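Give me the fold.
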Amino acid sequence: MTSANSPISFIDNRSVSGQEDKYKTVTVDVDKIIQNWRSSLFAHSWFHADGRMKALEELSDIEQERRRDVEQQIDGKQHIERPVLGIGLLDNVEIGSGRSVFVTLAAHQYKEVSVHIRLSNEDELKDFIIS
């Protein structure tokens, strides 16, 4: 079963392909990102209104499928695409491409995740970056 003790082998997200000069790969604090991201307009599909993360069976069918896919990738020790983080319209963290990866890792108690961030967002995201 997937756990925070299972090592993850990340690969670059295909959405940054051809734009590598505009992105940086960093490691972020998962708890801090999730805490901030809960205010996103997109968080409702993964979180209850009170901030609790939804259990697998509470997710929509599509999100359940996405979460299971990520869990299979982790369990199978497959390469996983790094999520892409940015700043949203409400000045909160947004998880763009790779949202299901990031939230699934959070659900399985991972504390640090390798992600891509836009160089133009580095200052706004500095408090979330571990390395």
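The helical segments are 30-37, 61-75, 99-107, 122-125.
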